[in-house]
Amino acid sequence: MVAELISVGTEILLGNITNTNARYLAEQCASLGLSCYYQVTVGDNPDRLEGALKQALKRSDVVILTGGLGPTNDDLTKEIAAKVLEKPLAEDLHTRECIETYFKNSMHRVVTENNWKQALVPQGAKVIDNHNGTAPGLIMETRDQKCVILLPGPPNELYPMFEQDIRPYLSSLTKEIIYSRTVKIGGLGESFVATEIKDLLDAQTNPTIAPYAKTGEVHLRVTARARTTEDAKKMIRPVLKELKHRFGINIFATHEEVSMEDKLVSMLQKRGWTITTAESCTGGLLSGRLINVAGASNVIDQCFVTYANAAKHALLGVKNHTLKKHGAVSPQTAREMAKGAAKAAGADVAISVTGIAGPGGGTKEKPVGLVYIGCSVKGYIEVMECHFSGNRSKVREATVARAIDFARRCVIRYSK
Amino acid sequence: MVAELISVGTEILLGNITNTNARYLAEQCASLGLSCYYQVTVGDNPDRLEGALKQALKRSDVVILTGGLGPTNDDLTKEIAAKVLEKPLAEDLHTRECIETYFKNSMHRVVTENNWKQALVPQGAKVIDNHNGTAPGLIMETRDQKCVILLPGPPNELYPMFEQDIRPYLSSLTKEIIYSRTVKIGGLGESFVATEIKDLLDAQTNPTIAPYAKTGEVHLRVTARARTTEDAKKMIRPVLKELKHRFGINIFATHEEVSMEDKLVSMLQKRGWTITTAESCTGGLLSGRLINVAGASNVIDQCFVTYANAAKHALLGVKNHTLKKHGAVSPQTAREMAKGAAKAAGADVAISVTGIAGPGGGTKEKPVGLVYIGCSVKGYIEVMECHFSGNRSKVREATVARAIDFARRCVIRYSK
Lengths: 416, 416
Description:
Strand content of chain A: 15-25%
Protein name (chains A, B): Putative competence-damage inducible protein
Domain MoaB/Mog (chains A, B): 4-172
Pfam families (chains A, B): CinA, CinA_KH, MoCF_biosynth
Largest sheet of chain A: 6 strands, mixed
Family (chains A, B): Belongs to the CinA family.
InterPro entries (chains A, B): CinA (IPR050101), CinA-like_C (IPR036653), CinA_C (IPR008136), CinA_KH (IPR041424), Competence-induced_CinA (IPR008135), MoaB/Mog-like_dom_sf (IPR036425), MoaB/Mog_dom (IPR001453)
Oligomer: homodimer
């Protein structure tokens, strides 16, 4: 079964926004076993939208349109869909009531005449209530078993509507399910990982293995198509086993929703340990990422941002002699920062970061991108030297990711 | 002149990645005065790619294809373009040498047979060197004055190539230039801003005003089309003046590349002031954002992440009595955090944040999303109460943005 996505919106054509809806819907369709051969974006133009919809209905089975369901004159998706499918528009009483209620509850907004057009519904369409906005979703089935789905553009309206109503509907159309697991690897480069599983990538049929790179991580998504979820899980199991065999502790998670920091915080909670951080160039991004984990309060009390050398000395006890002789960006300083932070915070684990994020500050001996990451676990201290490329923002982002992975490995190493 | 974007890549159709290239190119085309009516994504499929290119050549003047220029068997864009434009492929010696040099300099990679196909070039095409990869860009002009441009998919190869070679080429095609300025507003909601300039939005022709919302900011992009940059600047000037008149100090920048933190750090540098932060739920994201500004070292020495109550007391001197009576999330605690941080760091300005990011921790009196932001400027302390919606990540992101804007306003207020 083939799905096609049509994104309606001049703001996408102008490059004002990134089309994240297309990515979300494409991923959802793939997970439902729908093949997607085309994604098209058109503006708020009736003729071009009509042409795109007609073309989609010729070549695809399911056409999902997002955007253009608002109350203004530029919003045409529903009108065009009704025209192409030759259905008259009539006011749906239930939807009108939903719109009235939505405005009553939203405190400061008055229904405008424009909004009533959102209560118009093509004859025969299945109306999907919108709990986060005024435009209902619509499912229209055509005479030749095709399906046209109209969804609102704002992600906070689209995502819940898709999850609650559209996904179940599409599931009923396809005879297959797709089940995925994501093997997440830290601290290894994408080409290295791809080389290590070249034989698996070349031979793949079902399940498939799709690698993709994130900052400091490589994800391997293993996907199986089958008649039931149970069958799909059975097909995936040996692939996961083989990947675990090949990558060992480089793998920090095997579920899509588990992040590196989730894993680290969870490991600390299991051991009843606390953690602190001492950051220089990353300026708080590392502690910020750890504290994003719900439940971080069980393992974190305080963290340090010691941007100036004087602060490294005053707060962490880094020796002035060390700063003078080796400099702030040195393994010696990273070591003393980790040791001092663990002591000052009374924490079992401490991660320290000191480096040159750029654009300025680099020299021949210590170029931009040079970063030292220190990790103290129950008094055992290791320091890692890194060389990152890219702009200031990229260097800091890569540093934070590497630091979390480094801490994870150190905690494993010194847990025995 | 009409441009069309064709993104080639199955990974986009599968929803594995977000199509940020389309957004970048759309924005670039708009800024060059090219109208964009269609954006299409197809996979690594020869028939569908050929169909998409033929259709694009019928309805558009400039067709820009990204992706599919790699060395593998799936990479077909060049072959299909050559077929559609009826040009034979032949090896380009210069490109072959570029590829050899690229591999020689890249330390650990060996040229594979596959890579040589990247040296094949359609007859008559203009070759654009790729300084960040192996695939050259290609510009092909057709018999009927149309233009097909092939560009590499990886953003770090695409962006520099477009900036250096494609932009000048496209500029020469169009008889108009487009010039934009972005008015950036902090601390006001998008609908409020849109209402304040409804008359301007309704009446706009040239220049145009496009509003769009970011977290904690609203950007108004004012764009003029003219024969010369000078003329465009003249057209924009009165619009900028009117916006400045209407929004006053709510505006923190009038250039696209200036962020809120750039502005705040710049203001502090001008005054010779230093700043510190004391964060709880945002965990370091605020200091992390400030320290992203090159030159932050002139104004920041150290920052505090006081996640536990004990840390707020020990590091910032927040009274145990205050924490017991009012709680960590209270205006009283925010005030004492700001005061204590300024003193402990010896800084002129201090920003404090304490709130409930969720998902847990909320009560009827203090729900998830409740955040207090304190700001101390030369001893004068103000506290702001905020209510944010969304998940943990969104609450923290919104808090950081609001805190930076709040500090900016306080610095202005207490500078007199």
